[in-house]
Structure formats: C-alpha cells, structure tokens
C-alpha cells in the first residue's frame, strides 16, 4: 500500500497500444473483440470483423458493431502511471497496455461506462451492473498483483470491504507476476537537424525513442525529405512492433527481389493487405523508390487500423478533396480522427494536398496521432471564402472616329482630324481639339 504518486506528469503516449503482437493482422483491440463476442465473428482482410455481438459487462448495453464498443483497461493507464508505472520502461508499459495473457486485464465495454469510469479506482467507481461488481473488483486486484502496482489506502479499503462483504468467500488463482524488465542505460536519441520548438519535434522524437526511425549515420533525421515507399513499409512494420511472421519465399512484387533491403517489411505490408501495389503485365509492382503520396498514406493507415467501418457525412473538409477523389473515404477517416488536419488556407478553408509527397516530419506526426490519438477532428467543410471582388465596369468608349496608331499627348494634330479620338502609348484616351486657352488643335486627354 502506498499513496498515489508519479515522477512525471501522466503521458498516455508512453503506453504504446494497440499492437499486433502475433503478426496475424489483428491488433490487441481486435483480439479482445474476437474473444469476447457472444456470436460468431468473421475475420477477413487485415482483421475486418463482420458479425459479432458484444455485451458490456459494466452496464449490460449491447453493441453489434466494433465501432460501437470500446476496450477498457481494467486498471486505467493513468491509474497504473500513478501506481508505479511512471517508473517503468516503455517496453514494460507497452506489455501492460496490451496484456492478453490473462482474460481479465482488458474487456469490451460501452463507451458510456468507459467514459464514466475514466481513471477512477473502485473507491470512486463501480459498474452499474451490480451483478458484475465482485468479478470487476477481483479482476482489479489481480491485475494490480500481476503487475506489482501499488494501492492507495482508500482504494484498499474499498477492495477489502467489497470482497469480504457482499462477495463472500471465493477461491481464486493468483496470476503469474510479470517480472520487471531489466533497465539498461539508454542514451536519448538526438538529431542534429531537429531542434526544440520546430514543428513535429515531439512526434519525431517519439518515433525515434520507439525505434521506428533511427535517422541517418551522420546524425540527421532530414525532416523535410520525402518518404519512399520502401521506407514507409519499414516504418509501418516497426510501428506494429516488428511482428514475427512467415516471410514468403517468393516475392509478391515483380520489382522487389527476396534479397531486397526491406523485403521482409514490404512483404509483411502485402500479407496484411495494407498495400496491393500496381497491376502490370505478369504480376504486381510495388515501386519501392517512388515517394509515397499523402492520399496513399491515408490508405495505408486506414488499412493498418483494420479498415474500420466509416461512412463520411457532410461536405468534404478539404477544398481540394471531392467525393470522387481516390481514397476519399480513407482521407475523411483520417481527418475525422484528427490524424491529419491538412493545411489552413484561410476563411475556414483547408487543403489536404492528396498528391503531395509525405515528408518525414509529417510521417512522424501521422504515426504518432494514429497510435496515441489525434488532434481536433476535422469532420466536414466550414469553408466560407469572401465573394470575389467586383470587376470595375470598363468605361464606355465615346462614339466617333478613331485614328489608327498611337498619338502623343500635347502634339499638334491636323485640321482634318479635328474631333477624332486616339490613344497614347499608355492607353490614355485623347482627342484632337482646342481649349479655352489655346485655339490650336492638339491631342488632349479626354
């Protein structure tokens, strides 16, 4: 028992989740959904779920779509942080956040209960379904025991009162305690071209700290360099946790030989259905040296997330994205989750630049937000540019005879040209006429 404390402010990003630990295409969230569905679930593609029924044990609410159910960490990540996890390595926090080795560390729950619970312990929150209270509090205690997390005095009192009171005597099997992972001195990653205050600096360092990108041998990250498709494959494979999988003996792409530098990563991308390449005579091409465009990046991240059910509503939030555009749904999904907000072009208008190349700093931001959580979602268009300025009405040309060629202002003109019109080289309308102070014919401005 110990009071809650932490050596640093809570950082949800230090608990990397969800990951595909076994490399079967389904990350931790989907593994829980498959396991806890009360009706058969069909898994297709890269873990797209069809069918399934989920009953939230916290309140009895029923969901028929993965989009309508959340996965709850029985010990909330913030609670774990205050109970000792702030001192853990990132690897141990990652293992905790994706713990599938016991059936009670993660559970499918309604968003209503999940948000109501937040980071509260049993002294402050219990399921509204009282029939589940004993199982919930028992699971809480077992997970804390398994991960050697502390309990504060009020939390302990609540657990003891519930388990020794209404729950009565029960026999339980203690789980295997997860031993603390050895901590090795780590030199923080630094890049000579990534400085404090620059855009996406934190996202770049997050990428580096997790080994997704190590930069170049000269110590640079090159944030403004475009990302090639083969490098993108490597980044996504590492983002998934570098899962074990059976590497195909023959390449899925004509232009990627089996001895290619990133053959494993590219073939993994293909086996997960994240990329299909281009159809050509005799097979498919991956085009590894091409730069990846922003629309293709959206498609990769959407498929990486399991191609979740999503139907865009309302108008496009981007001025340069129409409903007929390639990867329209994938880009709208990215925007709705705040993974990409595009660029502000004024008057509430935004551009996505779908055919622009993805730069390395933006790639870091995309991956960070896809894993940790996005910024403010961009759901639909709010573009209201001002009306274009009215073009001035051109002056009405006087009716009369016009001399061909240019005339010189103030020059004498012939008697036979009296009353005629002409233009100076600068476009000023002139007329051959006299004035009240000069009876001679001259070209004078009208």
Automatic annotation (TrEMBL):
InterPro entries per UniProt: GmrSD_C (IPR011089), SLH_dom (IPR001119)
Chain ranges of the SLH domain: 187-250, 251-315
Family matches, as PANTHER family: AMP-DEPENDENT SYNTHETASE_LIGASE DOMAIN-CONTAINING PROTEIN-RELATED, SECRETED PROTEIN
Protein name: SLH domain-containing protein
């Amino acid at each position: 028992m110990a009071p809650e404390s932490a050596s640093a402010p809570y950082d949800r990003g230090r608990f990397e989740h969800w990951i595909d630990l076994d490399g079967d295409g389904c990350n931790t969230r989907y593994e829980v959904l498959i396991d806890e569905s009360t009706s058969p679930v069909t898994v297709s593609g890269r873990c797209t779920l069809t069918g399934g029924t989920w009953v939230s044990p916290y309140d009895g609410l029923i969901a028929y779509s993965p989009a309508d159910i959340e996965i709850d960490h029985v010990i909330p990540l913030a609670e774990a942080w205050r109970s000792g996890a702030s001192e853990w390595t990132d690897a141990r926090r990652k293992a905790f956040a994706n713990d599938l080795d016991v059936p009670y560390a993660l559970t499918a729950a309604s968003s209503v209960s999940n948000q109501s619970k937040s980071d509260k312990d049993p002294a402050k929150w219990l399921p509204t379904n009282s029939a589940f209270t004993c199982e919930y509090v028992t699971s809480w205690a077992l997970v804390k025991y398994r991960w050697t997390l502390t309990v504060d005095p009020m939390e302990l009192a609540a657990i003891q009162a519930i388990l020794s009171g209404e729950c009565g005597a029960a026999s339980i099997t203690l789980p295997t305690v997860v031993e603390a992972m050895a901590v090795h001195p780590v030199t923080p990653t630094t890049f000579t071209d990534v400085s404090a205050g620059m855009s996406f600096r934190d996202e770049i360092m997050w990428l580096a700290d997790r080994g997704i990108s190590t930069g170049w041998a000269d110590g640079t990250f090159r944030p403004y360099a475009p990302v090639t498709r083969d490098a993108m494959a490597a980044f996504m494979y590492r983002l998934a946790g570098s899962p074990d999988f059976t590497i195909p003996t023959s390449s899925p792409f004509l232009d990627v030989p089996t001895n290619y530098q990133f053959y494993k990563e590219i073939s993994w991308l293909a086996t997960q259905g994240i990329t299909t390449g281009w159809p050509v005579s005799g097979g498919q091409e991956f085009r590894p040296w091409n730069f990846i465009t922003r629309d293709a990046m959206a498609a990769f991240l959407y498929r990486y997330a399991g191609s979740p059910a999503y139907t865009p509503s309302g108008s496009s939030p981007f001025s340069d994205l129409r409903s007929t555009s390639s990867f329209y749904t994938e880009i709208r999904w990215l925007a709705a989750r705040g993974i990409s907000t595009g660029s502000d072009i004024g008057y509430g208008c935004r551009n996505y630049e779908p055919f622009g190349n993805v730069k390395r700093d933006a790639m870091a931001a995309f991956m960070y937000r896809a894993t940790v959580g996005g910024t403010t979602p961009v759901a639909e268009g709010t573009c209201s540019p001002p009306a274009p300025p009215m073009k001035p009405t051109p002056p009405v040309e006087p009716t009369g005879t016009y001399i061909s060629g240019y005339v010189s202002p103030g020059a004498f003109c012939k008697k036979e040209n009296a009353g005629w019109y002409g233009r100076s080289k600068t476009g000023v309308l002139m007329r051959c006429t006299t004035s009240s102070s000069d009876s001679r014919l001259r070209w004078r401005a009208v």
